[in-house]
Write a structure and sequence with these properties.
59% of the residues lie in helices and 4% in strands. It contains three helices and two strands. A two-stranded antiparallel sheet has the order 1-2. Helix 1 crosses helix 2. The longest helix has 34 residues. The protein is elongated, with a radius of gyration of 20 Å. It starts with a strand and ends in an 11-residue tail after the last helix. The relative contact order is 0.13.
Length: 98
Amino acid sequence: MSSDNAHPTAPGIKLYLSNFPTQEEVLLIIRFYLECLHKHEKSELTLEQYISSKIEKFEKEVKQCMLLNNYYWAVWSFIMLKETDIRNDLAFTYHFAA
């Protein structure tokens, strides 16, 4: 879990950066993905050339998708709120958005 929406101090949400993948872990996963992709794409480039030509683009896309994923789940949590939860001050703290 990367965040805790029941954190006792304001704004009520704590972000656990230690649960996110490190830069090295992200690059390792991207590299593995590109190695698999290279095998199936019949590229004339060597594996290292292929990875070098694509790794920056994939890293940017992965970071954008990580952000989009967090946004998606935030929107989902709002959709799942019941009318009674919205009126309950203990259910969600909106003051962090101010």
